[in-house]
Design brief:
One of its GO terms (molecular function) is phosphopantetheine binding. This protein has 4 domains: 188 residues, Rossmann fold, CATH 3.40.50.1110; 154 residues, Rossmann fold, CATH 3.40.50.1000; 148 residues, Gcn5-related N-acetyltransferase (GNAT) (Aminopeptidase, 3-Layer(aba) Sandwich); 87 residues, ACP-like (Non-ribosomal Peptide Synthetase Peptidyl Carrier Protein, Chain A), CATH 1.10.1200. The chain is 44% helix and 15% strand. The strands form 3 sheets. It has a 7-stranded mixed beta sheet, with helices on both faces. Strands 2-1-3-4-5 form a 5-stranded parallel beta sheet, with helices on both faces. The longest helix is centred in the last third of the chain and has 29 residues. The protein starts with a strand and ends with a helix.
Length: 712
């Protein structure tokens, strides 16, 4: 079982979130420790390396606009707007500083404003400010809402009584929703994501069987269209979408042709396997075509038989059985955590197009000799200094590139970084390579020299080295040195280096692990690609797999997603989450088993079993004896007020007689007192609406009734 420590800081009392966070970590098979920074100490905790946050494996920061910048209102003065903007900038700076120092993912959640105090406008401005300030930081992530778990009823979000009593602004329902959204986002930013979604057709994309009902007989209703929209969002975010169906291909294509207004079309589909082979074989064929491992595939099918066959034949694939109903299937996809993507680059959005272009390249390569193919490829390589617009892509390349990464580095710490943009007659590859260099005496040293495998073997790597040679020569430097550290997957880099007229030299503190391949500047500038001597690698358009950061779960192996179907089908709302949390607690003696317990005592006993460290076994058990403290007391008081409509007096609570029996008695007495007052007020209101004659008639009726009663 994996482990992680979460550190939480908030501008309000957030400890009720702890139980829900621990529940979600356990649901994912993670041994989690959740520690809270002192109340309203967000900035000191972020900037102190020895704080709870500095020692955590992941950091969660919860803020409200009203706490950071005072009670500003929508349409407020310029000073209030400036205060919000300054708060967003200060918080973003503190988050970046903390994340850089700790090397851990940080998540900031902007929580809803309190009714009557905070302003929706202020909340929106703070959220937008943080999103803008942190948009290029890959270690800090902004959660703008608790969607898709947000309670449908706004009344279920805020708890005015608990906020007033203990600065606990939210209900158990909202804390459950927020914890789900927080853990879901943290997993998305710390866990490798699947790259390919493979969807069945009959019963998944449409209702009906196209082979029996015909292309005009299948039905794609509004709820089924929501599934198409979700898959279209996956394509837009950079996932490859494939189809795998036991049908005639012409029938499947005809369905698409007759529904041109659907959210995606065949142009958005990277590859298809439509026929009668086993789906496990079809998936293996797709993996070969895309040059991707099966552990990067998600397979969606409504058939339990087909899912079982794929699980047996392709255990590496994350196989998910879709619910049979269209509405349930659409909801399943919305709650399917593996389909989340924390950040999307321009390169991600272009991935499907580039795979399609690569297919055309492969077709052309098969129609002519290798030399003729390269001669007609019209390869254009542009190498420029990296600018602000390249930061996200450069960081992504450093994180993901494995096969052609000479030093295996994930860091860019040179003095200059150059990015490599490639295109040919089939299309634009985008930014696919980079070098990171510094000058050391008479040598230009490249600590990073890497290239996406979708451009590997076509001479791009040779032009990158020639660029460094020309750069060194123009600057009066004698040599170019390339850092190389062998890894399990960078054999293509070793093969490239073996073709160079280079000597190998040790250098620096890492000499035992790293070799430096050194060329004269003239030799480096003269390097050219020779197709006849190109090593054969397993190359293609695929993005390299992510190097694993500290992870919450593991998407690379299906075992890491054991809870996916349970989460996506059952834990889809705060009420369901709270029910699951209660069911997950250790078995306790329920009040019904205690002889003589009243209904109120039974309710109090159940709540204490959920809130306290030790479950009660008797109506005479005391709150503080069972591990109660002030925060749990506020939560209990809030439940009493919500359920029974009464407020408990503090002189009852902070005594040794604060037992289940005693507090139940106080609840019942207060209910009776308030009910009596309400009934009396109601009678007075009724009498106030009667005339004198009507009142006299009521009195006479009462006297007669009393006389008959006495004579009887």
């Amino acid at each position: 079982m994996s482990k992680i420590a979460l550190g939480v800081a908030a501008t309000f009392t957030a400890e009720p979130l702890g139980d829900a966070l621990r529940f979600w970590l356990a649901e994912l098979g993670i041994e989690g420790d959740v520690a809270f920074a002192p109340y309203d100490q967000v900035f000191p905790s972020l900037l102190d390396p020895g704080s709870v946050l500095g020692r955590a494996g992941a950091v969660v920061v919860l803020v409200r606009a009203e706490d950071l910048a005072g009670h500003v209102t929508a349409g407020s003065a310029d000073a209030d707007t400036a205060a919000l903007d300054a708060a967003a900038d200060d918080l973003a700076t503190a988050l970046r500083t903390s994340a850089a120092a700790a090397g851990t993912p940080h998540l900031v959640a902007v929580c809803p404003a309190s009714p009557g105090h905070g302003s929706p406008g202020a909340h929106a401005r703070l959220t937008a400010g943080l999103v803008e300030a942190l948009k290029d930081d890959r270690s800090v992530h902004v959660l703008t809402s608790a969607e898709p778990y947000e309670p449908a009823d706004p009344e279920a979000v805020h708890d005015a009584f608990a906020d007033r009593t203990g600065n606990v602004p939210y209900t158990d329902h909202y804390f459950a929703a927020l914890a789900a959204a927080v853990v879901r986002r943290l997993q998305a930013v710390t866990t490798p994501r699947p790259k390919v979604v493979v969807a069945d057709c009959d019963g998944t994309l449409w209702d009906g069987v196209v082979g029996e009902d015909g292309p005009d007989g299948v039905v794609i209703g509004p709820e089924r269209e929501e599934i198409w929209r979700e898959l279209a969002r996956q394509v837009a975010a950079g996932r490859l979408l494939c189809l795998c169906s036991k049908n005639e291909e012409k029938d499947v294509r005809e369905v698409f042709a007759r529904h041109p207004g659907l959210p995606f079309g065949l142009d958005d589909v990277t590859a298809m396997r439509v026929g009668w082979e086993a789906k496990s074989q079809a998936l293996r064929s797709l993996a070969d075509e895309l040059n991707l491992g099966l552990d990067s595939f998600v397979f969606l099918d409504d058939s339990p038989v087909e899912c079982a066959e794929v699980r047996a034949g392709c255990p590496e694939v994350l196989t998910l059985q879709m619910p049979p109903g269209a509405a349930d299937a659409a909801a399943f996809l919305r709650h399917c955590w593996p389909l989340d993507l924390a950040a999307v680059t321009d390169a991600d959005r272009e991935r499907t197009r580039r795979y399609q272009e690569e297919r055309r390249r492969e077709q052309a390569r098969g129609e002519m000799s290798l030399a003729d193919f390269y001669a007609t490829l019209d390869l254009r390589v542009t190498i420029t200094p990296a600018g602000p617009g390249h930061e996200a892509r450069a960081a992504q390349l450093a994180e993901r590139t494995n096969q052609f990464n000479l030093s295996g580095t994930r860091r860019l710490d040179g003095d200059e970084t150059f990015v490599v943009d490639v295109r040919d007659r089939f299309g634009d590859y985008g930014v696919v390579g980079l070098t990171d260099v510094r000058t050391d005496g008479d040598t230009l040293r490249a600590g990073a020299f890497l290239l996406s495998c979708r451009a590997l073997g076509r001479g791009v790597e040779h032009r990158m080295l020639a660029h460094l040679g020309a750069l060194a020569r123009d600057r009066g430097l004698a040599r170019v040195a390339l850092s190389f550290r062998p890894t399990e997957r960078n054999q293509p880099a070793r093969d490239f280096l073996s073709t160079l007229p280079a000597t190998i030299e040790p250098y620096g503190e890492e000499a035992a692990e790293t070799a430096w391949y050194v060329l004269t500047a003239a030799d480096a500038a003269a390097v050219v690609h020779s197709p006849a001597h190109t090593p054969v690698h397993s190359s293609g358009p695929a993005e390299e797999r992510a190097a694993g950061p500290a992870r919450i779960g593991s998407a690379a192996a299906p075992a890491g997603w054991a809870a996916v179907e349970r989460i996506a089908t059952r834990l889809t709302g705060p009420e369901a989450i709270l029910d699951a949390m209660r069911a997950a607690r250790p078995a306790t003696v329920m009040a019904a088993e205690v002889a003589g317990a009243t209904p109120v005592e039974a309710t109090v006993m159940r709540w204490w079993a959920e809130l306290l460290d030790k479950p009660p076994t008797s109506v005479n058990d005391g709150f503080f004896e069972l591990g109660g403290h002030s925060l749990r007391l506020v939560q209990f008081m809030a439940r009493v007020r919500a359920e029974f409509g009464v407020e408990l007096p503090f002189d009852t609570l902070y005594t040794t007689s604060f037992t289940i029996a005693e507090v139940a008695k106080v609840i019942e007495e207060r209910q009776l007192a308030e009910t009596g007052d309400e009934e009396l007020a109601g009678l007075l209101d009724e009498l106030a609406g009667l005339s004198d004659e009507e009142i006299d008639a009521l009195l006479e009726s009462g006297l007669e009734s009393g006389s008959e009663s006495g004579n009887g």
